[in-house]
Amino acid sequence: MAALDEEKRNLVVKEIESWRRSKLLPGKYCDFLENLYLDDLNERPKGFMETTIKKIGQASRKQWFLTFGIFTLICFVVLHFSAFPVSLQIGLTGAVTMAFIAYGGKQRHNNPLRGLLSLGIGMVFLIGAGFGIVQLNGWMGGIGPMLLLGFCSLVWIGIGILMRVPLLHWFGWMAVVVFYALLLARHVPNPSLFEVQVFWIPAALLFAWLSWYLHVRFKSVGAVFFASALVLWFMPEVYSALYGIQTNWIQIEILFKIVIAGVAMFRLRKQWMEWVA
């Protein structure tokens, strides 16, 4: 019972603090109301900045030196990154990415939001630093960007499956879609309208079938493949718009495909809703 009263008191105090921040009541009135629930106003909940400043003030000398040492090391690496050998650039990028992944995996259960944020930063850092390496070494004109995109897609898919992060898994497949589009543009520069459809529609049907086939064992994987199938279904029109292929037919194609997809999803709603649930 006492714990319940304490919980209610903290809830009321937090509400009063929200009134203070939003200026709904003057500060003096908020202090008066908090005096009714708190023995000491110093006990009131502190905001994010106040809590952060307090922690900084309580940091030991060792923590201060460690923080400034790490900051100095980061600045040194960033400023001299272009002067490092390629192997060292790749090694540093891989080490930092693995550190973010390891921290994200460790925090996944204790603090899911922090864990997902760490994983996301690691994945963005990987492709960002990767493109930096490709540009610094003059590989932008060749197959460097495509190799990087292919590697990143494999990492995102692998980490998404291992860590059970469907969104990251889906981004990996979207990177594969971009890789496939670039590959087509490089090797088939002037396709016909029919060829564009042939390039993408079978892949969409394959992903839809994989969604059904895998959903029994891996629920999240079924949802990822279903979402990827929907993207692939409309990729011929996106590809045609990007590369100027029979653009006068794009709107008709989209409307036709929306009708087909809508009718199919309505008639099979009991099945595909089970796949993505």
From TrEMBL:
Q: Does the keyword Transmembrane helix apply?
A: yes
**Transmembrane intervals:** 64-81, 87-104, 116-136, 142-163, 170-188, 194-214, 221-243, 249-268
Has the keyword Transmembrane helix been applied to this entry?
yes
Keywords tagged on the record:
Membrane, Transmembrane, Transmembrane helix
Protein name in the entry:
DUF2157 domain-containing protein
